[in-house]
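Protocol step 4 of 5: obtain the predicted structure for the target chain.
Materials: sequence only (see below). No template structures provided, no constraints applied. The aim of this step is simply to have a reference model before the mutagenesis design in step 5. Sequence pasted as it appears in the construct record:
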Amino acid sequence: MPNSRTYGYVLLSVTATLFLATGCGGGSSGGSPPPVNNTTNATHEPQNNTTALSNGTGNSSAANPAGNNASTQNTSTSSQGGSQPADASAFPAIVQQAMTSLGENGFQGADAPTYVPQPVGGGSTSYNAHNTQPSAHGPQFLVGYHVDLLTGGQPYASYEVDHFVSTSQAASSLSSFASAVHGGAMPSGGTGILLPNNHSAQMATVGNSTVVYWSDNGWNFQVVNENTSVPPTPIVDKLVNALASASLPSSDGVGRVIVDNQNPSGADVTVTVIWSQDGNVYEVQTTNSAESPIQSALEMAGSMRAYWS
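Step 4 output (structure tokens):
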């Protein structure tokens, strides 16, 4: 899931007579901000890349009514993935706008979060919604989409759903998606420690980074302090406390929660939740631009539900 995606089509035709004609074209994001933190496995944002502005995210349509001082560019005119959800008010207005903009790329049965966090400071927000396609060397999903939520042009949250041909293929692809995330490399070995809830964990070194990791109820959790030997103890405590009140979704494979800290002060945290269910791989992410990024990522993941009826 790289930060920058390009897509090219090359059409070559050779006639049997006296001339040769060639042509090439490309698709780009048209200057839209890239997806959050290198998380998608797609190679481009092609025909249906939409950025829309709104006054705030909110967690109900009343907080951010669709079309209220909103501007939309490159909106798809293709058919929607399904009918409007019966309970549209369950989804924040910015989510409704993003899912509608995806058109037919928001495939039937697609999911979206009923909860999204507020950006720090409550500034104006926008979204960047586009379909995803697999890279040549990545997991070969059939169809998918990615939605970034931005404030001041910077990502504060995102969600992505990629649909596979089978449940087993989706589950086996989890590790590939996780490895594309900062801090997503699975550690091994290390020193045994006890978490605040007396659950056993390991502390290990991966490259120049320090990682605390553990497993529980079909999920792997890891907290990474990048480029330092200092243990990420305060962040581990926050994750453990947040998990005590969170309801993570069930996963057909081993789900992953990755908290990556790229600043010793803890001021550059990215939280990623990845799991598979019913042939889909889901990925939710928050950054320090979101209020309570750890709690918000867990809540956002637990709120994913079918959008199109």
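Step 4 remarks: The longest helix spans residues 233-244. The first strand starts at residue 7 and ends at 14.
Proceed to step 5.
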